[in-house]
Design a protein that fits this description.
The complex is a heterodimer. By secondary structure, chain A is of the alpha/beta class. Chain A is about 20% helix and about 30% strand. Chain A is built from seven helices and 15 strands. The radius of gyration of chain A is 19 Å and the shape is globular. The chains are: A alpha/beta, B mainly alpha. The interface of A and B includes residues 268 and 281 of A.
Chain lengths: ~300, ~120
Amino acid sequence: MLKSTQGEIDKEAQKGLKSTAIEQAFFLACQQKAETIQAVELIDQELIFSHARLVDKKLFSDNICQLIIEPVSPLYYHAGQFINLKNAQGIVRSYSIASIPSKQQFIELHVYKQANGVMSNWLFKEFTIGDKIDFQGPIGECFYTSENKNNPMILIGTGTGAAPLIGIVRDAIKSGHQGSILFYHGARNFSGLYLHDILSKLDKEHSNFTYRPSISRDEDSISNLTENDSPIKIEFGRCNEIAIKEIQPTSETTLYLCGNPDMVNKTRKKAFLAGIASKNIYIDAFEYKDLRKNDR
Amino acid sequence: MSDSLFERVGGEGAVNAAVDIFYRKVLTDDSISQFFEETDMDDQIAKQKSFLTMAFGGPNEYSGTDMRKAHAPLVEKGLNEAHFGAVAGHLQATLAELGVPEELIGEVMVIAGSTHDDVLGL
């Protein structure tokens, strides 16, 4: 597969590709006539490192923070894609993009502080406003495309899996999405529902957007909540299981799934069996591994 | 000259329509689902598409050796005649569900059946 940067892509060369791949101008080189395409690039070239600067940093909760970085040169991306950050020690980790492209060129990332996470602890403690960081990307096919504008959308995410999902929701709303948008966010306890206020507000403001929060472990963390703390009811249980029980997908429904790989893979199969078309399922499975073992 | 089997079945559109129905049937059949538990969905769907294209008489790069290699670990886990029959049954039911005429289903089943020895490592 190559990416076209100039010229016209033959229909034949994009047959069977996901709509997100088509939107990125990816095509199958073996099916493309040479005379209509003028310039191409290898998709791997997107993985070359570029630089960004930290412009803002705030805590969502004790162990989740928001980073706002500004790339030195304008970046074309879709909310929901991810970038790889590389710190001065050469440690590389992937983080999903929660923001939508705007004039400011800011990229919003959500970082969960892993117990022994070298990179996340570094980002929490050492990485300060004004610092530079290397990144590669954007990468990934888990994003919104407006060709699905009228279709129902379901998003299921655990923990900071909500980062790409809120990006996708922001993109959908900005694009004037007409179909329903159903967002299931799950965490272990109430503080893990770190977008509760933002998502509750979206729920209130947009009639086609519904926020369904749940927590799976610390039930005490929600037992004392008043109507004021949370006008939206928080369920107790695993968000993917709650979602699978509730959803009534049609063949047009698009599903976005983000979080740990086990949850993502299980839920993906269940959702497929519940009737969601395989081509309409977009996933972003977070793998907690050292990317240095892979391509650099 | 009459149209090829692939064209008469409905070409690539038929493959795309069939793949989800077929894969759902296979995944929900308890007698065979154990062979698919560990598989990656994207991977499986891509493979099912190329299998269906081949079975529909479409352009393919089918190789008996690849089929044999891919199924060898499953044969070790006990893949047998009954499982092959079950998958074939799901293919037939999928085509019937899509309204493919019976005589065309017969032709597809003959091609699918030709993979028998390679799938079961015979």
